[in-house]
Amino acid sequence: MLRTPALVAIAIGALLLTPVPASAAPTAEPPQGMVDAMERDLGISQDQAIKRLANEAHGNATAPDLAKQLGDSYAGAWYEGPEGTFVVGTVKSSDSRAIRRAGAQARVVARSLAQLNGAKEGLDKAARPSSSVHSWGVSPQDNAIVVAASDASAAQAWIASAGVDPASVKIVASAEQPKPLADIRGGDAYYIPAAGYRCSVGFAARRNSDNALGFTTAGHCGDVGQATNGANQQAQGTFRVSSFPGDDYAWVETNSSWTAPGVVNGYSAGILPVRGQTVTQPQGSICRSGSTTQWHCGTVTSLGQTVNYPEGTVSGLTRTTVCAEGGDSGGAFITNDQAQGMTSGGSGNCTSGGTTYFQPLAEILNRGYTLVLAGGGPNPPTGCAAYNEKFTASISSGQNQYHPNNSYYYSSASGTHAGCLDGPAGVDFDLYLQKWNGSSWATVATSSGSGPDESTTYNGTSGYYRYRVHAYSGSGSYTIGLNRP
């Protein structure tokens, strides 16, 4: 395993060619260094880069809500063209109107995203293929599972042995030989003295259980218990979590000498703030920065890739066209100001180009960690100020929390029950009011938009009530406010 310097990435969102609501545009002008790198690496103009960033910001924010709305017919989202036209797939032509209303171009395809994910799961469960099969994953833009292999016949035999419908699979020729690229600003170098190599910082993150500070990185960079030194060669921290292969994430707890401004070192692009974690969609532009190769850009090829490293397979990675070199592991990928993940591995170099995979950030955050945001976060949101009762808590993606204080309340009078949820930027949290019907909790009011903030009102009779907060995607601290009759 090659372990030398490491890298960071900055993913940059994409949108459409049609007019977009003003709210879809980024809240600030993108850093000039980011625009310059996109112009250089993507072969587009500065005007196209700026439009692409705005389009991707809209598309990345809209895709989760459309996925909810379309349900089983949803076939994924991606971007096309130099300005990043936002495209959404569906297996039902009747969905096209709703997709266009959301500011996207509709594409009717043969297979839903759920069907493709099921086929990909079949490949993941099959016996590990030969080393000539390099990676595989869902490609919404191809409406297929794309298998990258240097030996097509070996790939076909493996697909057949897995019992997966060959019509749902596309085999592409690949000269890759993916390997981990191993060697508190995202992208800065850090060292593992006992192992004699270095990697790069991903993102500052706190452990939810005790608010301890640390940073994310690649799992193959170090084992639990190994000490690290920072770029200044001073004592820095200790690996507390590490998973590789299978996954490729780790969390290093730092000592009291380190602080976290919630930024990524973009080198030529400057110091870049981290303000959330909205996932960029396929064909969205993405940049990375690392201690070996510094700042480079490309596009996301596909999500949910399984990569066949010499040490074993790693699932759930994102495949990109960004170049990287040995030692660029662990560094941050970020879309505009939205954190994406940590560099895992790849092939090629930054002279001739190549392919790089990153471990999505949510994988480690969902295990009890919260991203540190620019400005010193994370802090519980301070909304819902007008409500009589307020509670703060943290939640990980896919989990539920109940209030007040993991319990319920009794209302002896009829009247209005009002609830407010204020979550951090870049997540999708939902709010439900439930009433006890004598045998189970029944939902009587729902607020389930695509963002972090929700509110409900319900005129009800006396009885027992509770609020359920559900993290549909993303993790972090939140505030819930409630008024009782």
How would you characterize this protein structure?
It is a single chain. Helix content is 14%, strand content 43%. It has 485 residues and is mainly β. The strands form six sheets. It has an eight-stranded antiparallel sheet with strand order 10-9-13-14-15-12-11-24. Strand 13 and strand 14 (235-243) form a beta hairpin. 56% of the residues are buried. Mean pLDDT is 87; it is low at 1-27.
Give the arrangement of secondary structure elements.
Elements lengths: L6 E5 L20 H11 L3 H25 L3 E7 L4 E6 L5 H6 L3 E4 L4 H13 L7 E7 L4 E6 L2 H11 L6 E5 L5 E2 L8 E4 L4 E4 L3 E4 L5 E5 L9 E4 L4 E9 L5 E6 L8 E3 L5 E3 L11 E6 L3 E16 L2 E9 L11 E4 L2 E12 L3 E8 L1 H4 L3 E3 L17 E7 L4 E4 L5 E3 L3 E8 L5 E9 L4 E7 L5 E8 L2 E11 L2 E8 L2
Parallel strand pairs: 3-4, 6-7
Antiparallel strand pairs: 1-18, 2-3, 5-6, 5-19, 8-22, 9-10, 9-13, 11-12, 11-24, 12-15, 13-14, 14-15, 16-17, 18-19, 18-21, 19-20, 20-23, 21-22, 22-23, 25-33, 26-32, 27-32, 28-31, 28-33, 29-30, 29-32
Helix pairs in contact: 1-2
Q: Strands of the largest sheet, in order across it?
A: 10-9-13-14-15-12-11-24
Class per helix and strand makeup = mainly beta
| Whole-number mean pLDDT | 87
Molecular shape: globular
Major sheet: 8 strands, antiparallel
CATH class of the largest domain: Mainly Beta
Number of strands: 33
Task: State the helical fraction.
Answer: 10-25%
Name the CATH architecture of the largest domain.
Beta Barrel
Number of domains: 2
Specify the number of helices: 6
Signal peptide: 1-24
Organism: Nonomuraea soli
InterPro entries: Alpha-lytic_protease_prodomain, Pept_S1_alpha_lytic, Pept_S1A_streptogrisin, Peptidase_S1_PA, Peptidase_S1_PA_chymotrypsin, Streptogrisin_prodomain, TRYPSIN_SER
Protein name: Streptogrisin C
